[in-house]
Amino acid sequence: MRRTIAILVENQPGVLSRVTGLFSGRGFNIESLCVAETIKSEISRITLVTSGSPAIIEQIIKQLNKLINVIKVIDFYDTEFVEREMALIKIKAETQSRAEILRIVDIFRCKVIDVSQRYYTLEVTGNENKIQAIIDLLKHLGIVEIVKTGIVAINRSKKD
Q1: Contacts of 74 (CB under 8 A, 6+ apart)
Q2: In sequence order, what are the residues at sequence separation of 6 or more whose Cβ sits closer than 8 angstroms to the Cβ of residue 108?
Q3: How far, in Å, are 8, 19, 22, 111, 156 from residue 67 at the CA level?
Q4: Mean per-residue pLDDT for 13-34?
Q5: DSSP 8-state assignment for residue 67
């Protein structure tokens, strides 16, 4: 079972290493990892995606809560949340394919952020399915390189 977990930690050297060490030391895989400071510079938020049985996920969460410098662990299971990922895609932009690329950009509401004689670099934001769908459509046009940020997630606001 795939799970998205956010971890609020003290923004200190070595904290990320301890979190990832917990996973590697127990043979758990991290499928996605994103880390940044929060609105408070002394606190960072680690968003990670992992997979495992409910018992394994429970063990991971308990172990994370025991780590020094961990302030709070948020498991997004059983909550409504929004998750997004950003990808930069460099694609060959041959004269005959430029119009098709721009149609795809329009359909997926992404942006062309860099243009050269032979290449376009696209920025696309969305869930994993959206990013995979645009990659699948662009493959035959000649994707040169893909860079992804990793997933970030936040709880949905309560509807008033």
Answers
A1: 5, 6, 7, 8, 155
A2: 124, 126, 130, 133, 134
A3: 11, 8, 9, 40, 27
A4: 92
A5: S
pTM of the model: 0.86
Q: Is the pLDDT of residue 36 over 80?
A: yes
Nearest to 21 by CA among 76, 64, 71: 64
Helix, strand or coil, per DSSP, at residue 18: helix
CA distances from 130 to 31, 42, 75, 136, 158 (A): 17, 34, 23, 10, 25
CA distance 119 to 139: 14
Residue type, position 68, single letter = I
HEC sequence for 19-59: HHHHHHHCCCCEEEEEEEECCCCCEEEEEEEEECCHHHHHH
Within 11-159, strands assigned E span 30-37, 43-51, 70-75, 81-92, 111-115, 119-126, 143-148, 152-155
Contact indicator for 88, 34 with CB cutoff of 8 Å: no
* pLDDT (0 to 100) of residue 160: 64
pLDDT, average across residues 24-44: 93
SS3 of residue 95 by DSSP: coil
For residue 62, give the H/E element and its range: helix 54-66
